[in-house]
Amino acid sequence: MNVIVVGPKGKMGRAITRIAEERSDMTLLAGVGPKGRAYIGQDIGEVAMLGKSLGKPIVDDLEAVIEDCDVIIDFSTKETALQVLALAKQYRTAVVCGTTGFSEEEMQQFKKAGEHIPVLYAANTSKLVNLMNQLLKLAANTIGDQTDIEIVEMHDRTKKDAPSGTSKEMGEIIAEELGKKLKNLAVYGREGRGEREEGTIGYHSMRLGDTPSSHTVYFGGVGERLEISHHATDFSCFASGACDAAVYLAKQQPGFYSMADVVSGNY
């Protein structure tokens, strides 16, 4: 299968390029970068700092290379991702998107595109994070209404959105198990005086250094506390999961998929 990597110079793009090049079940077709960047026209292996040339270019026009592509892997910006989605729909090309920060209305565009092409959206492509989500379902279903729930997430200093898309997804999973909507439960940070409001889900975002990703969900009871955590030490776990998602998606019919499908599916 042929894949195109959107944003190959970014942290995730470099990691995905490296993992994809190492795998025998996919072939890198090209990389796509923003118009006007100095590295347009250069070899994707050099730009992704693999220490070698791969004989594949970085272009600034996705349409120029999309026809031979099976799956596009996109970890760019939300503006670019929406443009990629529209072109993928036009050319009937599958898309794996790991970009975060979309509004509810923008997310509807991905779900709507799933009526025409295979689309997989994931705020986090780590398999272990998605296993953690299953544990959160169990915990929320069992003790969610008996405990105080807090979510603490940590990312590198360059991350643009807060809270993280992963932590929002975790909160949505918990809220759903409680039969409620996250928007009615979430409290973002705290200051001032007053007791904790019962039934809320607290959010706390940390941005420091080069931390790839760290998420901990606390279920605080009386005399005891349960913590469920995932800590990424580098971006390779996300890149590997994104490539697994691409292989999975290449075999699917049009639809809107998640990493839960990848983790549980046979491909």
Describe this structure in words.
Pathway: Amino-acid biosynthesis; L-lysine biosynthesis via DAP pathway; (S)-tetrahydrodipicolinate from L-aspartate: step 4/4. Residues 1-124 form the Dihydrodipicolinate reductase N-terminal domain. By secondary structure, the protein is of the alpha/beta class. The protein folds into two domains: 2-121 and 235-264, NAD(P)-binding Rossmann-like Domain (Rossmann fold, 3-Layer(aba) Sandwich); 127-232, Dihydrodipicolinate Reductase, domain 2, CATH 3.30.360. The chain has helices spanning 11-22, 44-47, 78-91, 104-113, 127-143, 165-177, 236-249, 259-264; strands at residues 2-6, 27-32, 58-59, 71-74, 94-97, 118-121, 148-155, 186-188, 201-207, 213-220, 225-232, 255-257. The strands form two sheets. It has a seven-stranded parallel sheet, with helices on both faces. The protein has a five-stranded mixed sheet with strand order 8-9-7-10-11, with helices on one face. Helix 1 (11-22) links the parallel strand 1 (2-6) and strand 2 (27-32). Helix 1 packs across helix 7 (236-249). The protein starts with a strand and ends with a helix.
